[in-house]
Amino acid sequence: MNAGVWRALAGLLAIGVAALLVGFLWLPQVKPDFTGGGLWDAICRAAGVPSTWAPAVPREDAQASRVAAVFTPALAAGGDVGRGGTLALRCTMCHGARGVSTSDVPNLAGQYAEVTYKQLIDYQNGHRRHALMQGLAAGLSEQDIRDLAAFYAQLPRPSPAGPATAVPPLVNVGDPMRNIAPCASCHGGIDKKPGSPWLDGMSQAYLATQMQQFADGARRNDTLASMRNIARQMRPEEIEAVARYYATRAIVGRAEGGAEPAR
Ligand code: HEC
Ligand code: HEC
């Protein structure tokens, strides 16, 4: 190769090094919003590395439930069914003698122990608001709550309240465009996510009211806003349709039966 080519290559190299220095070291540091310290931060920034890897942690929501770490098998095992049955005598007036209510009060029979536990703790702490239930939960000890949860979990679930209606699309498909995951991916059918209540056979009015309250923020004890984010996206007629569906849904595979062992 002749000298001309060498000179051209050397020139290119020099320009390349200069460009790297300017682009990776100098420019990032003179940007007004550059807050990093040294050269390494400057290089990272120029290379497009985000300054924080995780999204900023939202400020503590005073209303948000803190019962997130209770979904352990030990919880369900920790309750004394017999003692729970005695304590439940205070609840029968509204929730029914066998945990199945004939009014619009939620059924407790066959409800997962971790759900009954979490809801009672949330009423106790005021994370879920309801004058009657907050007053009733206030007097319960942690052990009382475990025993009640264990007692209700083993009662047979209610039979469907009427003929099953057609399955609304949100139940098994959801709506990806609106970021609505299928109900069945958490509430059973496709998958059962810990903390998601058993809904089948609950009163239609109760189910619709709860979704409405998640939508308008009156109920905000759902950990990570999992239900609020969904309910906000739902149209009123969709809320009615899924509430009717779950209220009347035939219990697949059995006429009636106790809860599956809590996972
Ligand atoms: C005076 C009527 C009444 C009595 C007595 C009562 N409850 Fe309730 N309970 C309700 C109503 C109404 C709701 C729904 C409240 C709401 O909308 O948040 C409810 C909700 C609940 C829930 C939440 C259920 C769910 O699916 O989210 C649990 C758990 C519960 N009650 C347990 C109990 C236990 C345990 C007792 C007895 C110690 C009891 N309740 C006594 C009326 C009553
Ligand atoms: C990502 C999981 C997830 C999906 C998807 C989901 N839910 Fe939920 N849902 C939950 C959890 C968790 C709770 C309990 C929140 C709490 O701790 O209070 C809940 C609570 C509820 C309640 C209140 C029940 C009660 O007894 O108080 C209703 C009603 C409900 N969901 C309906 C639905 C419907 C209808 C859909 C589909 C349109 C749906 N959910 C989709 C996780 C989910």
Kindly describe this structure:
- With 263 residues, the protein is an all-alpha fold.
- The chain has two domains: 13-46, no CATH class; 73-248, Orthogonal Bundle (Cytochrome Bc1 Complex, Chain D, domain 2).
- Helix content is 48%, strand content 0%.
- The radius of gyration is 28 Å and the shape is elongated.
- Mean pLDDT is 83; it is low at 54-58 and 253-263.
- Bound molecules: heme C (HEC) (2 copies).
Could you write a compact summary of the structure shown?
By secondary structure, this protein is mainly alpha-helical. The chain has 13 helices and no strands. It folds into two domains: 13-46, no CATH class; 73-248, Cytochrome Bc1 Complex, Chain D, domain 2.
Features:
disordered C terminus, Cytochrome Bc1 Complex, Chain D, domain 2, 0% strand, 263 residues, binds heme C, elongated
Residue runs with pLDDT of under 50 for 5 or more positions: 54-58, 253-263
Compute the separation of the termini in Å.
74 Å
Helix content: 40-55%
Principal-axes shape call: elongated
Could you report the average pLDDT, rounded to the nearest whole number? 83
List all distinct small molecules, including ions and cofactors, that are bound in this structure. heme C
Please indicate the count of domains. 2
Count of separate DSSP helical elements: 13
CATH superfamily of the largest domain: Cytochrome c-like domain
Radius of gyration: 28 Å
CATH topology of the largest domain: Cytochrome Bc1 Complex, Chain D, domain 2
Number of strands: 0
CATH class of the largest domain: Mainly Alpha
CATH architecture of the largest domain: Orthogonal Bundle
Please provide the ordered H/E string of secondary-structure elements.
HHHHHHHHHHHHH
Helix and strand content put the structural class at: mainly alpha
Major β-sheet annotation: none
